[in-house]
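Revision sheet: structure tokens.
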Amino acid sequence: METKALNFNVTRRVPELIPPAKATPHEMKYLSPIDELEGLRFQVPVINFYRRSESAAHGKDPVMVIRKAIAEALVYYYPLAGRLREAAGSNNKPQLVVDCTGEGIIFTEADADVSIDEFGDPICPPIPGLSKLLFDVPGSGGMLGCPLVLAQVTRLKCGGFVFATRFNHTLCDGVGMVQFLTAVSEFARGWPAPSVHPLWQRHLISARIPQEITVVRHEFDQVPKTITPLFEQDKLMIQRSFIFDNDKVSTLRRHHINKSSNCSTFELIAAIIWRARTIALKFDPVEEVRLSVAVDIRNKFNPPIPMGYYGNVIAAPAAVTTAGQLKAAPIGYTVQLIKSAKASVNADNVTSMIDVPSVVGATTFTLSDVRKLGEQYVDYGWGKPEFGGSPMWGGGHAPYATFFIPIKSAKGGEDRFVVPMSLPEPAMVCFAKELNLMMQNDALQANL
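Predicted:
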């Protein structure tokens, strides 16, 4: 579906700093080797839309409720109120540390002359007017010396509101972000403490000495930093969302997967998205292309990473083939590539990733399944959100990565999710055409 343009005005108060509600330790905290990966040094936006619900929130102002709850949550998550610095690490190599200054996060109060229903049914990324709902406060977006979380609550004219946040990814992964937001929601509903006690404990993830690679992983291959002709020729990127429901998934499974084969919905749709995108971008048939799949590796450690740890605990195993093979082979072939990549994540694999960061090129596409993170259930006292998740992968990462994001069901109990894409316009037209063909084409069954 294409997101319609939506023009509305937002009136913002002067952004303020929200420090922890109580005094917190002033100390330096080191990050883990995963946190420090270059590929995680960017900001991640999260946005939730809520309807008016006076009976649930007793007529309270969401700005006041959430502002207070953030301050209370920061007492437990006080590193998020600090600032990133560089310190001398091993071999005098600069290492990121959190200076727990207690300065706080940036918070903006706002009002908009738009109602929640005007954002669409269902609400889907890319969210129109995102820059108004999550104002990029000047000087807030850097890595060093900047606030680690940016937050904005925008009241809507219908009585609902939008709560948008932006996290520095070096501090936490999706699980950690939702864990913090859940703590904020619990304080907003009057809880005396978070249900999950946060754990820093970055020492649980450490590199070996000497560092080494003990397993063969495609993530460590040196990839030529090529750019597809379409990216070079057309700098204008457009964004569209593609919705998948049970009926579409069943149709695609019936058309492209042998009945005796077993694959998850993620593996099937990831294979289809990767194939359609590769065709749309017109890679040379002999060019190597990769699909990196974000995998939570908390249970891959011995012992497993404990509940409450909110740092980055993710790996991105890569499925690798050529553009020509990906186009010519049946979807079942691509599914097996993805299954094998996911299955490759074991204890040795994880340790090697920590020892030597992966190197990827422009032909790598990354998919993250965030359907089970729980953003769509976070309740600040107004009930579950109409939409909860990523508004769209922003900045320079947009053409090379996307998410599987849950959206509100049109029918009771029906699971639906959306996959936002960012591509040059001619590639987007081709991508949508390829998806339609795969929905209708039974011919590939003969190749299974």
